[in-house]
Design brief:
The complex is a heterodimer of chains A (about 525) and B (about 190).
Chain A lengths: L15 E4 L3 H13 L3 E6 L7 H5 L2 E4 L12 H11 L3 E3 L9 H9 L3 E2 L4 H8 L1 H10 L15 H11 L3 E9 L2 E6 L5 H16 L4 E5 L5 E9 L5 E13 L2 E7 L6 H17 L4 E11 L2 E8 L6 H8 L3 H9 L16 E8 L1 E2 L5 E2 L2 E2 L2 E3 L6 E5 L6 E2 L6 E9 L2 H14 L1 E3 L5 H8 L2 H5 L6 H4 L1 H9 L6 H16 L3 H7 L7 H17 L2
Parallel strand pairs in A: 1-2, 1-4, 2-3, 4-5
Antiparallel strand pairs in A: 6-7, 6-8, 9-10, 9-12, 10-11, 11-14, 12-13, 14-21, 15-16, 17-20, 18-22, 19-21
Helix pairs in contact in A: 4-5, 12-13
Chain B lengths: L1 E6 L2 E6 L10 E5 L2 E8 L4 E5 L8 E12 L6 E9 L6 E9 L5 H8 L4 E3 L4 E6 L6 E2 L4 E7 L2 E6 L4 E6 L6 E2 L4 E5 L3
Antiparallel strand pairs in B: 1-2, 1-8, 2-3, 3-4, 4-5, 5-6, 6-7, 7-8, 9-16, 10-12, 10-15, 11-14, 12-13, 14-16
The chains are: A alpha+beta (about 525), B mainly beta (about 190).
Chain lengths: ~525, ~190
């Protein structure tokens, strides 16, 4: 645990913090602000009027509309909300406008403090080619590749000799998986270069393409850093986020079972060098791509608080959102690297309203009942409550179950216990996916990479698809009980009358009432 | 009241009282076998007393469930997850269930002649309609894309045949169970 010299909160210059976000992270930020005696302002869309962050905040400003563009991404409207609510600071959370340097500038120009890094640091680290150049200048290893845009196919061939196969061509201005091409042999180079240049031009309006070594199924390891505005900074060790599906993280843990203490110290040191080079202040994350414990390359920096910041908080015993606010108030970090001790193991499971048995089909809707897990080592960050209607417009993540244990083994056992206690009735969730992972021998022994979920498709299919024979009677029984409960909504009457399926005016009326009941009330 | 429950194509019959009492024992029959049950609505727990468990109640903890009623159909689609006592692995259930009334089989025969329809499994916004009346489609073809929770979800044809009607247009909001496409019979 860090020896912290906590500053006196009575003297904080920040009085009222507007949270430009929603869901669990808005709730998380409200909690940190309240611990510091800072008032909070929530913003909310039409669909979020009954959301927990609106209830918990001291003030709330309505942003009409439902889509993100109309609401949580609407800079002019948020600036008005800042003015109207007399907020003197803004926390962007993650997603939405959190890495938008123009928003950070606009907040500053409106006279409020942006809780996060400077717009300059955001811009610098947001440009992939520039960020890589900066890292190389500071001797932080990057994935081997071309430093400048490729001139022509011959230039590409020269690089290919150096880098080897497989390699990947990337549009400089690209992102989101577009404008990329994996090349596995010399023969493919010319076609791939032409295609990638074409895509780069049409999708991003910039034909620049660069190449680098393609690392197949790496481990995704990232380091949490925390810097103040006076150049002091520390890292809070690494997180392993290799359990992903289509680049969407599902389970994160800290530390990584992949690294030994020396490698851990080295990756942490590199992260601090990288953040310092960027002139960074606030909490941030340096992402690395790991081919092996010895081959760890800088990938990018996330200039915001991340979803999975919680596991770092648990092993370092430092409240990161609290420190984001304190740093924004001009406080200096009272601890040095040697004050921060790694304590135990932490795992986070993202609970999304998606059905892993149906290809992660999203399932927005009403949550009839919730029962939250508790007990030693259990933390739950969520905006769920019984009766909450999960909107269809935003991200499907509805809770983060964070477990701490003295060892990885104990943390896993506690996670399984907590998942078994966790009830969410009315919508599907990823809880059963986590249970499947937590039983998998490869996960238990720590031999997995970012390809795990795809590689184990058969395992998951079997896991989700099978109902043990001896339990079939109970399953049938239970579903019948469920259906019987539904009868209270009038289904029985209609079925008995034999009206269902016939288009008499009465049955239509009944049906509509029933559908409404099912949609709103579930069972 | 008798219920027919179909799980992976296997039908089972369950007899339950018309009104399920809360937290009081009641008798039920599962495929001819008698059991005593107790249902606690507040805790979502079902307690079972059968010959194997003797005098002690064993619990089935219902963790998550959703029931979808499709307009114009008798069957309810039930999706549930539960943890039986003594089992660490949660059980997933996908079933269709309906009230079983003797003599209804004739109507079931009539139901078989009903036109084939494609329904939405999710609540969301219709992003793209890739089919029009008269089109010939093959089972598995993507016909419609529905956006929900920032994700694009492909809705595939559940049958091979000719499209009769398309019930939605791009930009429409649909709820789970809504009819999207109706196919020609035969």
């Amino acid at each position: 645990m860090a020896k912290t010299m906590e500053p006196s909160i009575k003297t904080l210059p920040m009085k009222r913090l507007l949270i430009a976000n929603r869901g669990e992270i808005a709730v998380r930020i409200i909690r940190a602000a309240r611990d510091l005696g800072v008032e909070t302002v929530a913003i909310y869309s039409d669909a979020d009027q009954f959301s927990l962050h609106v209830k918990l905040a001291d003030f709330a400003v309505h942003l009409p509309g439902n889509t993100a563009t109309e609401t949580y991404l609407n800079i002019p409207r948020i600036l008005t909300a800042i003015k109207e609510s007399k907020a003197d600071a803004v926390h962007p959370g993650y997603g939405f406008l959190s890495e938008n340097a123009n928003f950070a500038d606009a907040v500053t120009n409106a006279g409020a403090k942006f809780v996060g890094p400077s717009a300059k640091a955001m811009r610098l680290m947001g440009d992939k080619v520039e960020a890589k150049r900066l890292m190389k200048a500071h001797k932080v290893p990057c994935v081997p590749g071309s430093e400048n845009p490729l001139k022509d196919v011959d230039d590409l061939k020269r690089h290919a000799k150096e880098i080897g196969f497989p390699m990947i061509l990337k549009a400089s201005a690209g992102g989101g998986g577009r404008g990329m091409r994996v090349v596995r042999s010399t023969e493919e180079l010319a076609d791939a270069f032409a295609a990638c240049t074409r895509e780069a031009t049409s999708y991003f309006g910039n034909p620049a393409v660069f190449c680098e070594r393609y690392i197949e199924n790496p481990r995704h390891i990232e380091v949490q850093v925390l810097f103040d505005e006076h150049g002091n900074g520390v890292h809070l060790f690494e997180r392993d986020c290799s359990i992903q599906r289509r680049h969407q993280k599902l389970i994160e843990e800290a530390p990584s079972i992949f690294l030994n203490p020396e490698q851990r110290a080295e990756i942490g040191r590199r992260a601090v060098v990288a953040a310092k080079a960027a002139g960074y202040a606030s909490a941030g994350t340096i992402e690395f791509i790991c081919e092996s414990p010895e081959r760890v390359y800088f990938m990018e920096m996330n200039t915001r608080i991340q979803v999975e910041h919680t596991v770092s908080e648990e092993i370092a015993k430092i409240d990161l959102v609290r420190w984001q606010i304190l740093v924004a108030c001009g406080e200096s970090l009272p601890f040095k690297q040697e004050d921060i001790q790694l304590s135990g193991w932490a795992i986070e499971a993202r609970i999304n309203a998606e059905d892993p048995a149906k290809g992660f089909l999203p399932g927005p809707g009403r949550v009839n009942q919730v029962r939250f897990p508790a007990g030693p080592g259990v933390r739950l960050d969520t905006h769920l409550y019984a009766g909450y209607e999960i909107p269809q417009y935003y991200d499907s993540m509805v809770a983060k179950l964070i477990i701490w244990g003295p060892t990885r083994e104990i943390a896993i056992a506690r996670m399984r216990r907590a998942l078994a206690e966790f009830e969410i009735d009315g919508v599907p969730t990823t809880a059963k996916f986590h249970e499947a992972v937590l039983q998998h021998p490869q996960f238990l022994e720590g031999s997995f990479n970012t390809g795990f979920v795809e590689q184990q498709a058969e395992y998951f299919k079997k896991y989700f698809g099978s109902i043990p024979e001896e339990n079939r009677d109970q399953a049938a029984l239970l579903s019948a009980v469920l259906a019987a409960q539904d009868q209270q909504r009038g289904a029985v009457a209609a079925a008995k009358d034999g009206l269902a399926g016939q288009q008499s005016p009465r049955s239509l009326w009944h049906e509509r009432a029933r559908n409404e009941a099912t949609r709103r009330g579930g069972i | 009241m008798q219920w027919k429950v179909s799980i992976s194509g296997k039908d089972q019959y369950v007899v339950l009282p018309d009104a399920i009492p809360n937290n009081l024992p009641f008798d039920a029959t599962i495929d001819g076998r008698s059991v005593k049950l107790r249902w606690q609505k507040a805790t979502n727990a079902l307690f079972v007393l059968d010959s194997q468990s003797g005098p002690a109640w064993t619990s089935i903890n219902l963790r998550s469930s959703s029931v979808t009623k499709f307009p114009g159909e008798n069957d309810l689609a039930v999706s549930a997850e539960f943890l039986p006592a003594g089992t660490k692995t949660p059980l997933m259930l996908e079933a269709t269930t309906s009230i079983h009334i003797p003599g209804q089989e004739a109507r079931a025969g009539a139901a078989a002649k009903k036109p084939k329809v494609l329904r939405s499994q999710i609540t969301g916004k219709v992003l793209k309609v890739m089919v029009k009346p008269g089109d010939s489609v093959t089972s598995g073809d993507t016909l419609i894309i529905i956006e929900a929770m920032k994700m694009e979800n492909r809705v595939a044809a559940n049958t091979t045949g000719l499209v009769d009607q398309v019930k939605v247009t791009e930009g429409d909001m649909v709820s789970s169970g809504a009819e999207l496409v109706r196919f020609k019979q035969g």
